[in-house]
Amino acid sequence: MQGVGFRYSMQREAARLGVHGWVRNRRDGSVEALVQASEEAIAAITDWARRGPPGAHVENVRVANIDTEESLATFEQRPTA
Question: The pTM is what?
């Protein structure tokens, strides 16, 4: 799902919701994100990701809880992985 401004739009939505983390494109055309926030904010950004920005066609959103020692103070776009 590249070419619709998904990462930029997700970064703006994350800032609005107070979500920290990152988002990046994957070489297979998918988008990957790590989010840190309250349960309510995570639910809100996940709901947003299921729709995406105008022009996006989201086929699937997978959510997994992970343990990470990475503590993020902002929400940033990262290079393609």
Answer: 0.88
Hey, which residues are catalytic here? 7, 25
Give φ, ψ of 74 to 5 degrees: -140, -175
Which residue range(s) make up the domain with 20? 6-63
Dihedral over Cα of 23, 27, 56, 48: its sign: negative
pLDDT in tens, 16-75: 999 999 999 999 989 999 999 999 999 999 999 999 999 888 999 999 998 888 888 999
Question: For 79, left (φ over 0), alpha (ψ -120 to 50), or beta?
Answer: beta
Q: What span, in angstroms and rounded, lies between the C-alpha atoms of 51 and 56?
A: 7
Q: How many domains does the chain have?
A: 1
